Amino acid sequence: MRAAGHSVRTRLRDRIAASDPGLLRLTAGLRTVGAIALTLAVLSLLGTDVPHLVAGAMAAMVATFAIREKQPGAQAVTLALGLPVALASVSLSAVLGERRVVGDAFFVVLIFCAVYGRRFGDRGTALGLIAFQVYFLSLFVGATVSALPGLYGAITVAFASSAVLRFAVVPATPAGVLVRLRLAFRARLAQLVSAQLDLLDAGEDDMDKALQAVREGTARLHETAMMIQGRLEEGTPDESAARLVQRRIADAEIAAERLGLLLLSARTAERADTLTLHLPGAPAPSVAVPAAPDESFATLRRDLRALHTLVLRAGDDSGTALAHVRNRLLGYRDEENLPPASAAVQDVFRGIGEAARAVLGLRIALDGPQDESDDSPATARSREELDAEEAALDGGAEEPAQEEQTGLRRPTTRAAVQVAVGSSLAIAGGELLSTQRWYWAVLTCWIVFINTSSTGEILVKGYRRLLGTVFGVVAGIALAGLVGQHTVTAFALVLVLIFAMFYTAPLSYTLMSFFVTAMLGLLYTLLHTYSYDVLVLRIEETAIGAVCGVVAAALVLPVQTDRRTNELLVTVLDRLAEVAEAAVGQLSGGPADDLLDKARDLDQALADLRAATQPLTHPVTPLRARRDTARYVVALLETCAYHARTLAATAELLPTHPSIAADPRLRGAAGRTVRNIRAIAARVTDEHAGTKAETGPSIASLLGSDAGTPRYGRITDRVLRHLERLDEAVVGLARPLGVPVETPGR
């Protein structure tokens, strides 16, 4: 019973870790709700009236979610600076409340400064957000000069409560967050292996569903790897430890993605195209090999389950059974005990061996030295390789200085001007609807500009906020009717809705807007200002604010979606060329380079592009052909990034792996691929550029591979395959981007 209970707890922990990597959403929700609850408890004991309770609750929420720094010391400084900023903001709002024109003008200036402050990093962003939101809450509760002492007290209690929750009740150090992210990576890796097992067993009718699950699992694993990458510097004791974790995470991600491709190839009539794993909605290749009756597939199924167990129990040293499982899987890397099967199926067994090796490396990097008493020769060799790689890792090169934009070209300056203009329009339009609650339009205009960079992104965000607001109004009406004037019940429901708002915010902006609006219906009830007309007015003000934001973005220093995506596309192509050139250079015998950082820079650039194309790929977009092209281009780029990552990881093995030797011919053979990437980037930058992409003989033929040449080793064969797939994907990328493709000599 105890073992069963432990197993259930472990599965529940893994499921939570996988759904909320690092428990970041749970931490944010608990901190915010806890800070609000503590504020309400203290203020209630002091006999504070309801308007001040509402002000304190809103201030606690702002003081908690505005702070984004990772180090506790930096968070404490920002929180301490935020209190005087909040007190100054509420004072100015109260003083200027009766001077409408002056108050509106100051509000616009405050908005400009708050957005402009984003150029000073997380602290500038936080202080600007606190200043704006506290000014807004003072308008919401109708702050007056006579009420300032009470508001000062409520805000001070709110900031103190936020500090207690952040540093004492729900602390989160960078090292602790990184540990939880590692657990999430393991859990998501196990989920991906489970999805791959379903792909192995899927019939003809279930292949599309199983393949989509593998796609989603691969994307979720990559998302977690990127989150870990962003926390390594603060969460590890030194740079060498950070680089080791970075390397092992990259190994595991590449091995898992490759295993999925090999499984797909084993089930289909021909080798699977990497694009199949990256293009949403792409149909699965037709099944050519049934999995059920084949003995080799039964063994494959057993070993995939064993790999799944190995991932989940990566930190468990109990007994020898796990060691025997690991020894068997690692033996496949050295061609030991490969079951009789087709070449494609045997490749899957080798892929399982590589994945087991990646899990072993991840375990050593994260959990420290292991018991080696039950190691087989194959496992001992894998450990020696991992130790040699660890010794070869160095501090890496310094990041090149980025060219800083100035003046109105700087994104923060442009955004500040746009928000100021949009807010001015929102104030004017909002006051035409209501002289009392016009600030809702301003709030919407402000929010649609947060974390957006183009007109299309602002349009999509405004649409989502309006949609969430409409449904939230319906929920608010229902909740207000149920609660009536029961203050304690209303505040309890407010806490539930706030937790839901923060927990769902990274997942769905529409859901977040829904919970915010439902919560506001309850707050209006507490302030005795609730009515059906007020909530309808909330929808109208939200619509005006969204429209004003879009108008300002479209007319004032506009950044069109096409221009934004083209800029990011060029960045991705530049990063891709850098990774490919550096990896091939090292594989050709050139000097060592910081390939892991270059590969992660490519991944980050691709993530930025993927986010920027959301307006083009949104389900409601009327431009279907354009949507399909954008999805296809992003999928092709993800395919290129996968091959480039794998080449980079292989190149970093060069000094330590006995099966890899430098081949000077690679540089010349892969030169065409790098030239094509740069030609496409030049054409995207300037559509009138006369650049062209080239196609021609395969990479293998350029290296002189023929019947009289000795067969390449398995690792070298893999390098050639990745080079060829990268070359094909780059040529495929040229066509949808309008770059001519020619074959020299024709």
TrEMBL record:
<protein>
    <submittedName>
        <fullName>FUSC family protein</fullName>
    </submittedName>
</protein>
<feature type="transmembrane region" description="Helical">
    <location>
        <begin position="23"/>
        <end position="44"/>
    </location>
</feature>
<feature type="transmembrane region" description="Helical">
    <location>
        <begin position="74"/>
        <end position="95"/>
    </location>
</feature>
<comment type="similarity">
    <text>Belongs to the YccS/YhfK family.</text>
</comment>
<keyword id="KW-1003">Cell membrane</keyword>
<keyword id="KW-0472">Membrane</keyword>
<dbReference type="Pfam" id="PF13515">
    <property type="entry name" value="FUSC_2"/>
</dbReference>
<feature type="region of interest" description="Disordered">
    <location>
        <begin position="367"/>
        <end position="411"/>
    </location>
</feature>
<feature type="transmembrane region" description="Helical">
    <location>
        <begin position="439"/>
        <end position="459"/>
    </location>
</feature>
<feature type="transmembrane region" description="Helical">
    <location>
        <begin position="512"/>
        <end position="530"/>
    </location>
</feature>
<feature type="transmembrane region" description="Helical">
    <location>
        <begin position="124"/>
        <end position="145"/>
    </location>
</feature>
<dbReference type="InterPro" id="IPR049453">
    <property type="entry name" value="Memb_transporter_dom"/>
</dbReference>
<feature type="transmembrane region" description="Helical">
    <location>
        <begin position="101"/>
        <end position="117"/>
    </location>
</feature>
<feature type="compositionally biased region" description="Acidic residues">
    <location>
        <begin position="386"/>
        <end position="402"/>
    </location>
</feature>
<feature type="transmembrane region" description="Helical">
    <location>
        <begin position="466"/>
        <end position="482"/>
    </location>
</feature>
<feature type="transmembrane region" description="Helical">
    <location>
        <begin position="151"/>
        <end position="179"/>
    </location>
</feature>
<feature type="transmembrane region" description="Helical">
    <location>
        <begin position="542"/>
        <end position="559"/>
    </location>
</feature>
<keyword id="KW-0812">Transmembrane</keyword>
<keyword id="KW-1133">Transmembrane helix</keyword>
<feature type="domain" description="Integral membrane bound transporter">
    <location>
        <begin position="426"/>
        <end position="551"/>
    </location>
</feature>
